[in-house]
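PROTEIN–LIGAND DATA SHEET

This sheet pairs a single protein chain with one bound small molecule, pyridoxal-5'-phosphate, given as SMILES. Inputs appear in the order they were entered. The predicted three-dimensional arrangement of chain and ligand is reported afterwards as a token string under its own label.
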Amino acid sequence: MVRVNPHYSKLQSSYLFSDISQRITKFQEANPDRNIIRLGIGDVTQPLPPACIEAFHKAVDEMATAKDFRGYGPEQGYEFLREAIAENDYRAVGADISPDEIFVSDGAKCDTGNFQELFASDAIIAVPDPVYPVYVDTNVMAGRTGAFVNGRYEGLVYLPSVRENNYVPALPDRQVDVIYLCFPNNPTGATATRAQLSEWVAYARENRALILFDAAYEAFIRDPEIPHSIFEIEGAREVAVEFRSFSKTAGFTGTRCAFAAIPKTCMVYDEAGKPTPLYTLWSRRHTTKFNGVSYPVQRAAAAIYTEEGKRQVRDLSDYYLKNARKIREVISGLGFFCAGGDNSPYIWVQVNCDSWAFFDRLLAGAAVVTTPGSGFGSCGAGYIRISAFNQHEKVEEALERIHKLLK
Ligand SMILES: *Cc1c(COP(=O)(O)O)cnc(C)c1O
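PREDICTION REPORTED AS:
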């Protein structure tokens, strides 16, 4: 008899976005003539930058000739891409990361989800609340969280990100082993200062803990004081891993390319306290379970580091940031407290009522889709997330409708 993984039954059944899409379908069926505008799910709408398209095409043509054809590539990613990443994303901001500390993958979702398998099953895991659900659910599947009771998993340590702390959680009041952090944050849009990240690095060093730093939205940072990478913080090389993605940076959500940066000096420990480089473990895992991102996709990704590529991805994030500013302006003008939206494509709105009730009100009254904050954790109750990933005209129209409904 094949027995099911018992931990799967602890997962909260309805994945947030399928719940939302059911409500949208129901609304559209009842109102076939209403034109729905989606500011819900965090998916990009603008096409790939021309530099990426050109490199992508050229690489596909190379695959058509016996001379330039490529089969299996290096699991860790082609050197041309890893070198461009180390140089432009790290050394250029004074962060000491070398090309062989980069692992190219097909997504930061898979990387942040898979990484937990390197840790003991009784490792104490801390997650922000609200949180990107992938960090939580993958630990549930691995049996690390205990039961779901009153909206929270008993075995997880939750780090409240609330208005009182500007949505940057305080250090835990107990010892934890693994800490997930994400800045600029999904869903709150909050960013962390150098001083705040330094506190987390100091905590991790004192407790021999590990920070899993998700920097999927770093391309949206405009404030020069805000660090783009955890490795801009002194001492982070011993206690942190960073995840990045071309998804939001360069419109790769459907093309798929991302990477993890794992310093060779970052350690995990056995029961006797003997250190092992995390790098060695992830390298073993990655080469066993993954066979590389396709060559044309890696060429397309590398094109964002050329002069014109850099300009084009900057324009892309500027495009969405323009939406974000406008959303924040109109929604706060209606009297709601907003976070995010300046160095982030998300606006986190305190709605002073039930998240789903407000979601339904915007859907029914304005045909605009947002995301209920409660879907990201109990501290998200009373909030909605508005995404800036849409075309300017649609965002403007959505804001006009919301303004009319709520003014
Ligand atoms: C979108 C997103 C990612 C990127 O995921 P990909 O799998 O690379 O598309 C990672 N982390 C967070 C928090 C995100 O919102």
